[in-house]
Amino acid sequence: MNTLVKNKPTRATEIWFDDSKLYALLEDGREIAVPLEWYPKLRDAKKEDLNEWRFIGGGVGIHWEELDEDLSIEGFLH
Length: 78
What we know:
Layout: E1 12-17, E2 21-26, E3 31-35, H1 40-43, H2 47-50, E4 54-56, E5 61-64, E6 69-72, H3 73-76
Antiparallel strand pairs: 1-2, 2-3, 4-5, 5-6
Protein name: DUF2442 domain-containing protein
Pfam families: DUF2442
Organism: Gracilimonas sediminicola
C-alpha cells in the first residue's frame, strides 16, 4: 500500500510590482513579496517588459518571454 501523499502545488492568482519588489497573491489568500534584487533580469528590465508576463502551469510559475525568465511560486517560499 502506498501512503505517499503529494502536496498540492502553491499557485498564484495575481502578481504586481513596485520599484523594488514582486508581489504575488496566492490562491489560499496569502500575499507574498520578494525583492527584485534576487532576480537581475527582472531588476534590470524595462517596466513594459516586466509587465509582459504570463502564468505557467496554472499559476505555479511565471514566465517572461522577452526576458527569457521563468520563476516558480514555490521558489519564493524557500
